[in-house]
Design brief:
Largest sheet: 22 strands, antiparallel, barrel
CATH class: Mainly Beta
Pfam families: Plug, TonB_dep_Rec_b-barrel
CATH superfamily: TonB-dependent receptor, beta-barrel domain
Strand content: over 45%
Structural class: mainly beta
Radius of gyration: 26 Å
Helix content: under 10%
Number of strands: 43
Number of helices: 3
Number of domains: 1
Organism: Bradyrhizobium uaiense
Domain TonB-dependent receptor plug: 2-110
CATH topology: Maltoporin, Chain A
Protein name: TonB-dependent receptor
GO molecular function, one term: siderophore uptake transmembrane transporter activity
Length: 735
């Protein structure tokens, strides 16, 4: 591979080292960090070289994620719901940069997850884990084969009360089942992934509240119900020793319901007997109904925003592989076609609420806000998207030391939006995007233990239905909730150059085995899509726009050493992420913003300004030691550099500080079939921030003109705090 491809196996996802999938990926892979926008351990964002795969609707995505050959970025917003993946059933994970063959959204790379089946896993295993903040989780997996038939099943359930104040508890239930059959030429599998998860969310909290109480929250309830039914059939067949076929067909049913208690832009009108929103616009209950009377006394005003996305998607891939020698040289050709189609029904509403001054809980009043000019009105939208791809890649061995890989993929995307309310024609649109993305690279084996690689590729991502429906700065949306208009957005095109060296040293027990890698990367993205804060300055409102060119470049270095009872690793990544175009962006609540004649806060971004939310430095190290044949102890260090606050486009406010966390783990093999294990995360109980942003200060408006609730908060910075010290212990039994 002419790139720095990383691979993890099922052993890397053992609960001996971490409590969840993303922590396992973050633990050892260079270039990866985790950020958090929801305050939920099951719903974090994976950042790789400054591109993300996030479960949060409205986050511009840059990584394609596959499960058993199916792209699982959801049709509606390209989000990745990590909580759907049955972690015990994972057999292998590959992180691949610099390859457009993985289709749309792979502008920063692709994460390919291969699941277990009865041919690759035999036996029965049960596991129970418990610990801090009410965490209780268990799993069972079983697999086996008889003659040419196999079966595998995994079931997982987890509960976590959450460490933040009030309700951010989570219930996760998921399963994976695979039935397979094979003979000498053909292998066929049908597998099913199901999930029913209720996740509590906690948004960023004002820094002044965190200084008083680390676990405090700023308005609630916030929760997300996620459900999945995913069926996939895979087929592979060898026509001969050199020709083979691989294919799959799938159906994916996805449901999401989100409830979010927030502040509101609703306030008493000039005539305090009625309520207004925005610049004096009356709040209507029913569409075209009378202005809402103000009967709320001195209650502080908020709102409960709700949305629901229901998506049915289906499609498949057909691929041919050939390994015939060409001109007497080894050659490997892969060619294929894929089609993915999605149908989404999206609904949203906003209910006027009142805020309890004691705990900031928002209670609905039964009045639903309907004011399109202020960006809030009920939404009922039908979106369809069809993505077609044709690809070919060829690896040719020029010599026994030098191999060249070349190919490309043509992507054609059709995205249509249809308003179902009959009142918002601006949402109706038909969008078409197409592009051919090439890839070329080579590897050269300098010595048997040293290989050089270099490659160039292009990739594209099209605007999602969510982004297309919220791209008008004059009509900003409640991100993750409301859509109001669709001025055109351009597709993002990335150009990536990558080069480096990798190798190993030592082959026996006397010297140990050292593997290492050193590389550099540079990705220039044209027409990058970013999320911009609403000019209105209201928390959680925003829109999407193309931001010209952006650049993410840096270096990666890694070491892994195994000797006798020792196993140690270390890696470092530097990411320099900058804007490359001069643009003017709305930046409300930013104390360093300029103010236009119309009162809009904005900043002038110049080439070289750092992209907010992307830490420049990432360092990880760890060691494991087998004290005895049965007892193992280990430690991991994770250091993440400072980053600019979200929406601090010109880098003038103080950064989110750098942080370091040390985790400990141990395991003991009681018998051949029983093992106990324990973990301590953040062993020194460090207080650190995972991300930060600006928010609207001034507190919450009273319906009766009473002093504003929380008006004493004057610092416009809000942060998502990291989890304090947490300890877990568990037991695993194999049969």
């Amino acid at each position: 591979m002419p790139s720095n491809t990383e691979v993890l196996t099922s052993a890397d996802f053992s609960r001996n080292y971490s409590t969840n999938f993303l922590d396992s990926v973050n633990r050892k892979l260079p270039g990866v960090t985790l950020t958090d926008q929801t305050g939920n351990p099951f719903q974090r964002t994976l950042d790789y070289r400054g591109f993300v795969a996030s479960p949060v609707q409205g986050t511009p995505q840059g990584i394609a994620v596959y499960q058993n050959g199916v792209r699982i970025n959801e049709s509606w917003g390209d989000v990745v719901n990590w909580d759907f993946i049955p972690e015990k059933a994972i057999d292998r994970v590959s992180l691949v940069p610099n390859n457009p063959i993985f289709g749309l959204n792979a502008i920063g790379g692709a994460l390919s997850i291969q699941m277990k089946n009865g041919f690759t896993y035999q036996g029965v295993e049960a596991e129970v884990l418990g610990g801090s903040y009410g965490r209780v989780q268990g799993s069972v997996q079983a697999g086996g084969q008889k003659d040419n038939v196999s079966a595998y099943a995994a079931f997982e359930s987890a509960y976590d009360r959450g460490w933040r104040d009030y309700a951010n508890s989570s219930h996760v239930n998921r399963m994976y089942v695979d039935i397979g059959a094979r003979n000498d030429q053909t292998e066929f599998h049908v597998n099913f992934t199901g999930a029913n998860n209720l996740l509590g969310n906690v948004a960023a909290t004002p820094v002044e509240m965190l200084n008083q109480r680390w676990s405090s929250v700023y308005t609630w309830p916030q929760s997300t119900l996620l459900q999945l039914a995913f069926v996939n059939a895979t087929l592979s067949h060898n026509f001969s020793d050199t020709w083979s076929f691989q294919g799959n067909a799938y159906f994916r049913g996805f449901r999401q319901s989100h409830t979010d208690g927030n502040g509101t832009d609703v306030a008493p009108c000039d005539d305090p007997r009625t309520l207004c929103i925005g610049n004096g616009l009356p709040v209507f209950g029913p569409a075209d109904g009378p202005a809402t009377p103000n009967t709320l006394g001195n209650a502080f005003l908020g709102e409960i925003d709700r949305n629901r996305a229901a998506t049915n998607s289906y499609g498949g891939t057909a691929q041919l592989t050939n390994s015939d020698r060409l001109f007497g040289h080894d050659n490997h050709v892969v060619m294929g076609v894929s089609v993915d189609h999605g149908n989404t029904k999206f609904t949203a509403s906003s209910e006027l609420g009142t805020i309890d001054p004691n705990n900031l809980f928002v209670t609905g009043t039964g009045v639903f806000i309907n004011q399109p000019d202020a960006g809030l009105s009920p939404v009922d939208l039908h979106a369809t998207n069809t993505y077609t791809g044709i690809y070919l890649t060829d690896t040719f061995d020029v010599t026994n030391k030098f191999s060249v890989t070349a190919g490309g993929r043509f992507n054609y995307a059709q995205i249509d939006l249809h308003d179902q309310t009959g009142t918002n024609d601006l949402l109706n649109s038909s969008n078409r995007f197409q592009r051919f993305n090439p890839v070329i690279g080579g590897t050269y084996k300098i010595t048997p233990n040293l290989t050089a690689y270099a490659g160039y590729s292009e990739a594209n991502r099209t605007p999602t239905p969510l982004e297309l429906g919220c791209s008008d700065p004059n009509h900003p949306c409640m991100i993750d909730t409301f859509l109001v208009a669709d001025p055109p957005l351009k597709q993002v095109v990335s150009h990536t150059v990558e080069a480096g060296l990798r190798g190993s040293w030592g082959r026996d027990a006397k010297t140990g085995v050292l593997s290492w890698g050193l590389g550099a990367f540079r990705t220039l993205s044209d027409d990058d899509i970013i999320q911009v804060a609403s000019p209105l300055g209201v928390n959680n409102f925003g829109y999407f726009q193309n931001a010209g060119q952006t650049l993410r470049q840096g270096i990666e270095a890694k070491l892994d050493y195994r000797f006798d009872r020792w196993n140690a690793y270390a890696n470092y990544t530097y990411v320099n992420a900058t804007y490359q175009s001069a643009i003017t962006l709305s930046s409300p609540n930013n104390p360093n913003a300029l103010i236009s004649e119309g009162g809009v806060q904005f900043v002038n971004v110049t080439p070289g300004d750092r992209i907010p939310g992307i830490p420049a430095h990432r360092f990880k190290a760890g060691v494991d030691y087998n004290v005895t044949d049965a007892w193992k102890v280990g430690a991991d260090l994770n250091v993440v550099g400072s980053q600019w606050l979200i929406h601090d486009y010109t880098n003038q406010s103080p950064k989110v500080p750098a942080y370091s966390v040390i985790n400990l783990h141990t395991s003991y093999q009681v018998t051949k079939n029983i093992e106990v294990f324990g973990l301590i995360n953040n062993v020194f109980n460090q207080h650190y921030y995972l991300s930060g942003a600006f928010y609207q200060t001034g507190g919450f408006v009273s319906a009766g003109g009473a002093p504003n609730l929380m008006a004493q908060l004057s610092d416009p910075r809000a942060f998502v705090p990291g989890m304090p010290l947490a300890a877990y212990t568990g037991i695993r039994a194999k049969f």
